[in-house]
Amino acid sequence: MTSLPAPSTRKLGLVIDLDICVGCQACATSCKEWNTGGYSAPLSDHDPYGADPSGAWLNRVHSYEVGEGASGQTVHFPRSCLHCEEPDCVTVCPTGASFKRAEDGIVLVNPDTCIGCKLCSWACPYGAREYDHDDGVMKKCTLCVDRIYNETLAEEDRVPACVKACPTGARAFGDLGDPKSEVSKNVATRGGFSLLEEFGYKPVNRYLPPRPRRDGHSAPVNVPVEAIPAADNSVAEKLFAWADRVLSR
Amino acid sequence: MHPAYSVILFTTASGAGYGLLFWLSLGIQIGYFAGDRWQSLAMLVPALALITIGLLSSMLHLGHPERAHRAMSQWRSSWLSREGVAALSTYVPASLMGMIWLLEIDTNFLPALAILAAAGAMITVYCTGMIYASLRTIRHWNLGLVPLFYIAAAATTGALLFLLIQSIFARAPDWVAVTGVAAIAMAMIVKLIYWRTIDGNKGQYTAEMATGLGALGTVRPLDPPHTMPNFVMREMGYKVGRKHARKLRRVAVALAFILPLAMVLLALYSGWPQLPMLALATLSAAIGIVVERWLFFAEAEHVAMLYYGAARA
C-alpha cells in the first residue's frame, strides 16, 4: 500500500492564484472548520486562547515580501499538501497508513492505521503535514475527499472547503491531469508553476504568479515639474498650467 | 530537527546492544568462547536488554504504540519497516543461542546461529541509519556516511561493552582489544569526515525555489501564518543547540573516541587492573555517543524551513 500506485490520468488538485490572494485566512479557517469534523477529525488545538497556542491545521497562509525597494511587493502565499505524484511521504510510511489513491491521486493518511511515527512529515519538503498530539496520528490536506464526492451536498458545494470559502476566487479545484480542464487551461495561459520543482516529488497543485505591475514592474517615477514637456500655447494648455500652479500651492 | 530523547535513547542503546551481539557472535564463530557458556550469557543478556530498552523507547515515541506491529508490513518501500523486520528477526537466532547456553543443549547449530545473529545485528543498525539517510529533505542526513557511522558507533560501543564484560571474567586478550581500538578509530574518522561534509554543504534549495517567486526578486517572510510556532517549526526548525554545536562536537570527540581509545590502550599495555579503566572507557563513550546523537538531530536542517525564513536549505 505504501508503494506508489501506477500514475493515474486523473490528478485532482488546487490552483492558487497569487495575484488575487489577499491573505485573509478564510481558506485556512474554513479548512480547519470542515476538517475538524470531517475525514481528518479531530484537528486538535492546544492552549488555543492562551499565550502559546498551537494546533493541527492543514492549510497555512504566509505573507512574503518579494523584490527590493520600490519594486518590492507583498505576496500572500497559501501552503498545503500538493498531492505530489512521487512523494516520499508515502513510501517512508512503515504501516501503509500514508497512501496515494490510484483513482484520483489524492494523498491521504488512514487515521486507523497511522502509528504516529512522524516520519512522513520529515519526508515532506513543503511542511504540509502536521502531527496531532491529542489524536496521536498525522494530519494533512485531504483535498476534502469527503466533500468532492459527497452526493448529500448540493453539486456546487462539492469542492474543497478552502475553494468554497475564498472570497476573491483565488483558489480553484479540478483535474490537472486533463489538459482540457478549466484549471489546466488557466495554468497554461497564466504560466502556472509548481513549488520546488527541483526536488523531484512532482507536485500536482499549481500556483499562478502575480501579474506584472501596470507600471511595468519598476519604481514609480517622480518626474520633476520642469521636465514636463512644454505645452503648445493653446488656451486649454494655459488653463491646465494655471490650474496646476494653483493646486500645487 | 528536534532531538527527541526517546529516539536518542533508542539509537544509542539498541546500537550498543547490536554491537555487543555482533562481537559476541563473531567470537563464537571463531571459537573464542569454547565451552564457557556463562561468559557468553553474560554478554548476550545485556546485549538483548539494551536492544529491547532501545526498541521499547522508540515505541514510546509513537502516537499509537499499540499499533506498532503494523510497522512490519511495508518493508518493500520503508526503511523504518525494514528496520522493524530486521530487529525482530535478529531476536530469533539471538534467543536460540541463549537457550542453547542456558539449557546446555549439545548442538552443532551454534556457529550458524552466530552468523545469523551477527548479520541480523549489522543489518538492523544499517536500516536504522538508512531511515535517516533516505530523507532527501535533510541534507545533513541524506549521506552514505550516516549508515556507515551508525554501524561504526554500534561497533565502538559494542566492542567497549565486550571488553568490559570480558575483563570481569579474565584479562582481555590483545587481539580483542585491538578490534575495539580499530572500531573506535574508524568511528572517529567517519564522524570527522561527516562533519567536514555537512559543513561544506550550505544547501541547494532556496526560499525563491520553495515559493516559485524568484523571478520577482528575493523572498522574505513578512507576516507569519500563525502567531506561535506550529508542529512543523517545533519539529523541523529546532535551533537551540546550534550555537553550541562546535563546543559539543569537541566534547563528543573527546568522550566518545579519544578518552575511550586512551583507556583501552592503557588497559592493554599498562598492566594495571583492566576493569576500572574499561568501565571508565565505556561510560565515557556512552555519554559521548549520546552527545553525538543529540547533535546529529540538532544540527540537521530541513527544507521545509525555507517557508519559515531560512534562505537556503
Comma- or semicolon-separated keywords:
heterodimer, A: 249 residues, alpha+beta, Alpha-Beta Plaits, 3-stranded mixed beta sheet, two-stranded antiparallel ribbon, 7 helices, 18% strand, B: 313 residues, mainly alpha, Formate dehydrogenase/DMSO reductase fold, 10 helices, globular
Q: What can you see in these coordinates?
A:
The complex is a heterodimer of chains A (about 250) and B (about 325). Chain A has a single domain (about 10-210), classed as Alpha-Beta Plaits. Helix content of chain A is about 20%, strand content about 20%. Chain A has helices at about 25-35, 90, 120-125, 145-150, 160-165, 180-190, 235-249, and strands at about 10-15, 45, 55, 60-65, 75-80, 100, 105-110, 130, 135-140, 170-175, 205-210. A three-stranded mixed β-sheet of chain A has the order 10-1-11. In chain A, strands 2-3 form a two-stranded antiparallel sheet. A two-stranded antiparallel ribbon of chain A has the order 4-5. In chain A, strand 8 (about 130) and strand 9 form a beta hairpin. Residues about 220-230 of chain A have low confidence and may be disordered. With about 325 residues, chain B is mainly alpha-helical. Chain B has one domain (about 5-310): Formate dehydrogenase/DMSO reductase fold, CATH 1.20.1630.10. Chain B has helices at about 5-30, 35-60, 80-100, 110-135, 145-170, 175-200, 205-210, 230-235, 245-270, 275-300, and one strand spanning about 220-225. In chain B, helix 1 (about 5-30) runs antiparallel to helix 2 (about 35-60), helix 2 runs antiparallel to helix 3 (about 80-100) and helix 9 packs antiparallel against helix 10. The mean pLDDT of chain B is about 95. Chains A and B meet through strand 3, strand 4, strand 5, helix 3 and strand 8 of A and helix 3, helix 7, strand 1 and helix 8 of B. Strand 4 (about 60-65) of chain A pairs antiparallel with strand 1 (about 220-225) of chain B.
